[in-house]
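[job 0417] fold request received: Kelch domain-containing protein 6
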Amino acid sequence: MFEKEEPHPNTPFVQEIDYSTDNPKSGLSKSMDLPDEEPDRLSNKLWQYDPSQDQWKERAPMQYSKYRFSAVVVNSEIYVLGGIGCVGRDKGQVRKCLDVVEIYNPDGDFWREGPPMPSPLLSLRTNSTNAGAVDGKLYVCGGFHGADRHEVISKEILELDPWENQWNVVAINVLMHDSYDVCLVARMNPRDLIPPPSDLIEEGDNHRRQR
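[job 0417] inference complete; emitting structure tokens
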């Protein structure tokens, strides 16, 4: 049975970040109910949804109004990377591609600046993200070096270790497309993904009986 949730205050002009306080390392996804064309007005607002209360609450705003940014959760904090935007509230000022990294602390409800990316980047589409986190490190895969669909697609994978606070290029000339999402998969032993051979099961059962 489906239940209707409280609508977002800014729908349809919203970009969502899925963040779980119970398991902050579980991952992130984002979506935008907008076409790829640039919207008339950008926002720097942040809203938090509480499922237990079915309520939205406005939190501390970002420094930049933006869209087509990537976002990811690392060490219980939200990293917002690049995008197209302007400083402060959007009042019609000139927009530009950003190399800015903004980091949100949910416990303290505040933003701080992170190390700028090596070059301005924006996500390839409004409904995709090209960032993810593995083992406490942040990775950005590709992106656009410009707001025009004909601008250069980055073929680099960037890595940020929050403790070192420095970006590194960990892969170059990677095959990239103009529409994709980054999906990070848990590192598992292949034998845990498929049923073990019958002789291995019998051997394990015999070992348990002997014990």
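[job 0417] notes: Confidence is low (pLDDT under 50) at residues 21-35. The helical segments are 198-210.
[job 0417] exit 0
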